[in-house]
Amino acid sequence: MNRRRIALTLVASTATLPALAGCQAVDSVVDYFGPRPENRLLMLADAAATDALALSGVDDHAADLRNAQADALYAEITRLCGTNDAGNAPRSCEVERPTKANRAADSGEIMENAASATTAAADEVTVESRALVTEQAIALNAWLPGDAPDIPELSQPEQKSAADLLSWEYEQAFGLDFARAYVGPEHEDNVDHRLEVHHRRIDALQEALSRYGNVPQPEPAYSSGDQDLPHDSASALGFIGGLAEQDSRKWSAAASQAAQEETPDQEWVTWLIGIAAESHGMR
């Protein structure tokens, strides 16, 4: 019965299509029933393309970022729709990229709006695309001045993630403290700034976790992972750079994973994106 109902529905629907023959008829059916661009992704892609046009000649670095993000989003739309042997998306999934935009007065407002919209969409687009959108939200938030947002209340799964991230922050602070002993005086302020950022995160995570009981405490010492511990100024600077890269990857992965949960908590995702953006900016 269900099969017959579906068949009758298809017959009734195709009857409304233009009377065409051969390949034209097939194309019309594909256009009518074929895949469509994911609406949220299309909105983000069009916004990125429009921003790139508006920023061109005003802030070329921002324009390049938004143009690259638009390219990635349009490519993602095509990937989700699927392609034929020639690598083309179905006609039902074709999109027209914006070609005109009013020139921006400055980049600040445009980038702030882009960061806000992309962050909000990180857990709203299709699950397959959330890693991409989260990555773009991190890059946009890293572009903006200001501190990361306040940490929200934590669910039980988020408490586990927060505890892992707290242990990670202890490890980062230990590594920076160790490296500081070897850098020259001209680099001490930079190391102290990085330590301040990590201690601020430690304080936020400790306070958040203390509401629920158990708070992980720092170990007496930590391994240096894939890096050799520094022994002079040059190796200390390389070590610090390696820590920054690892930290950026750690927080970006945490944000992406949180966004891909079945029922993501937007406040938690937003906080993770903010911290990942902070790490991104310190690389």
Automatic annotation (TrEMBL):
<protein>
    <submittedName>
        <fullName>DUF4439 domain-containing protein</fullName>
    </submittedName>
</protein>
<dbReference type="InterPro" id="IPR012347">
    <property type="entry name" value="Ferritin-like"/>
</dbReference>
<dbReference type="InterPro" id="IPR009078">
    <property type="entry name" value="Ferritin-like_SF"/>
</dbReference>
<keyword id="KW-0732">Signal</keyword>
<feature type="signal peptide">
    <location>
        <begin position="1"/>
        <end position="21"/>
    </location>
</feature>
